[in-house]
Amino acid sequence: MSVICNNGGFKYVVKCFICTIGLVVLYICIEVFVTDGNGPILESISSMKFYGQAEKPKIAIIVVTHRDGTGQYSLALDSIKCYCQARGYEFILIFNDRNEKCGQRDITFQHFFRRHCHVANEIANSTINYFLFIDADIGVVNPKRKIEEFIDPKFDMIYYNRFYNQEITAGSYIAKNTNWTIKYLRDYANYETKLPRGDHGKDNGGLHAYIAEVLFPKRPIEIASCWMVYNQSRNHNDLFTFEACIQTLLGIDEDISGRIKIFKKGTGWCRDSWLTNSLWNSTTDFMIHGWKNSRMINYTEKELPLTIRERDRGRWYNPYAGPLDLSKCTPGNDTWNFDPNIQTTVERIREKLDKYYAQFEMDKINRLSRLSWYFQKKTEPPKKT
Ligand SMILES: *[C@@H]1O[C@H](CO)[C@@H](O)[C@H](O)[C@H]1NC(C)=O
Ligand SMILES: *[C@@H]1O[C@H](CO)[C@@H](O)[C@H](O)[C@H]1NC(C)=O
Ligand SMILES: *[C@@H]1O[C@H](CO)[C@@H](O)[C@H](O)[C@H]1NC(C)=O
Ligand SMILES: *[C@@H]1O[C@H](CO)[C@@H](O)[C@H](O)[C@H]1NC(C)=O
Ligand SMILES: *[C@@H]1O[C@H](CO)[C@@H](O)[C@H](O)[C@H]1NC(C)=O
Ligand SMILES: *[C@@H]1O[C@H](CO)[C@@H](O)[C@H](O)[C@H]1NC(C)=O
């Protein structure tokens, strides 16, 4: 008591206090300048501000495929595994079997819809905060990018628009672990029973009908107009017209309802390989779609440098130089070995994609202009556009 209260003791306490503050400031300075803002204190603060939780959110990549899918998509899956190990995400692989929760009751569940049923069950039974669901033939070309760039905690479901048509991509989405999401995905899987006959586009066509129903319950008339097309869909041209019709309801904003966000063309986390003949650049690209082992081809010396022109939509070149060694995919390792012949400049990629973008916008207008056909009783189908 007397020690603390006498002059000398008080000075000691003040000194100690100043000293402690000094150390804390010094520590924060270290976080800012040395670790580039990646220390625990600053991360907690920024996580709290963004996600509303002090710990960094837990993120998983989830793939649902049939049992022999792992062989057919091994390069894509290895790249995803390597990426998860390097970035500290969990990797979840689920076999798309029928089980008591997905596919043994009244609904048979066709392969594609059943995937979303499995994802819903996985989320319901997990403490992971965000799930990036991807098709099994999606791989990573740019491990420096992070899934966090695309997460917006305001939304339960995040999608992106496919580049080459008017479709929302059903084959990849970010699902936030909420009760709303779990119900949304279960109802989506069950939506299989509501599809029209004809060319309904499986879970991808169905997603458009389903999303419209979820988002616009007060707009039955507008939705019915699009369904006039969907009910008559006999080929992809009809299907894409139906999807363009739904897109007119979604509008051009990314935030539609406060629940669902849809990244516009070219701004999502993934794109198709064939758009640029497999060429990529780290400024624009992150994940690439379309890596089926059986369709991978090699180039010959004579073909170099590779053209960026579209050739065959299924075939693709391996962007890696040498095998992906999973034992070397250690935390923080984002320097993989790439084949320089498959890389190109960002300018070349952008030029190519911009040209396509304009072309696909014209396709959209053509499709919308065909809408009236479906409201008339004609015998001839409209000309293919
Ligand atoms: C949740 O996971 C546990 C452990 O893996 C498993 O035993 C259980 O059946 C799962 N529950 C559901 C609802 O999937
Ligand atoms: C979510 O659903 C579970 C199980 O039905 C329930 O226990 C929990 O309270 C719900 N959470 C919220 C935030 O509503
Ligand atoms: C589409 O077909 C279904 C099933 O035949 C029918 O119930 C629905 O009313 C049709 N919708 C439109 C807009 O024609
Ligand atoms: C491409 O080259 C690799 C390695 O030389 C070889 O294993 C593979 O069979 C080749 N693929 C084709 C389609 O020729
Ligand atoms: C990082 O991982 C890649 C892919 O497996 C590997 O080729 C590379 O050698 C690793 N780099 C280091 C520094 O371990
Ligand atoms: C991407 O484009 C930039 C700008 O043209 C270029 O400097 C870079 O080398 C390219 N390569 C890769 C792998 O991103």
UniProtKB/TrEMBL annotation:
<dbReference type="InterPro" id="IPR029044">
    <property type="entry name" value="Nucleotide-diphossugar_trans"/>
</dbReference>
<protein>
    <recommendedName>
        <fullName>Glycosyltransferase family 92 protein</fullName>
    </recommendedName>
</protein>
<keyword id="KW-0812">Transmembrane</keyword>
<dbReference type="Pfam" id="PF03314">
    <property type="entry name" value="DUF273"/>
</dbReference>
<keyword id="KW-1133">Transmembrane helix</keyword>
<keyword id="KW-0472">Membrane</keyword>
<dbReference type="InterPro" id="IPR004988">
    <property type="entry name" value="DUF273"/>
</dbReference>
<feature type="transmembrane region" description="Helical">
    <location>
        <begin position="12"/>
        <end position="34"/>
    </location>
</feature>
